[in-house]
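In the present case, backbone shapes were mapped to integers, as reproduced here:
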Amino acid sequence: MRLPLLALLARGPAHGYELKQDLEQLLGAAYPQPNIGQIYVTLGRLEKSGLIEGEEIEQSNRPNKKIYHLTDAGREALHAWYEETADEPRVRDEFFMKLALAPQTGLADQIALINKQRRQYLNTMRSLSKLAATENRDNRVAQLLIEGAMLHLQADLDWLERCQEELEEQE
């Protein structure tokens, strides 16, 4: 949550609720929506680390609000983030660990685990399909997010099929 908030602040000063709304509008319903408490805690941490600065703004008939803006250090952190590539290999997959350990423990059948995981992926894919149909078609970022998630799920389903074929050959 830290770096996406910094990225939003690169456009200009904003308060926490505006940042929450901007994230929701940008990413749509497919992305887990942050709660406002999480955003304000993160903003506090970013301020303590010198990546943003906050300024209290007085409001009549309402409590004061705090507007945040990016510091030079925050801008540098953001540049570094954009320069990094996302390297997240799935070798630490929890499902695969269950699958690998099942025969050793005798507590679960590997094919049953695969079938259960397949059902979960298919249910998630159905939910994403419904979401894609209801999501604002003009929100291309949200549509791309849903499409990417569905492509990952399809790859996971293909991989489950490969695992099942391999295990059935061993029998």
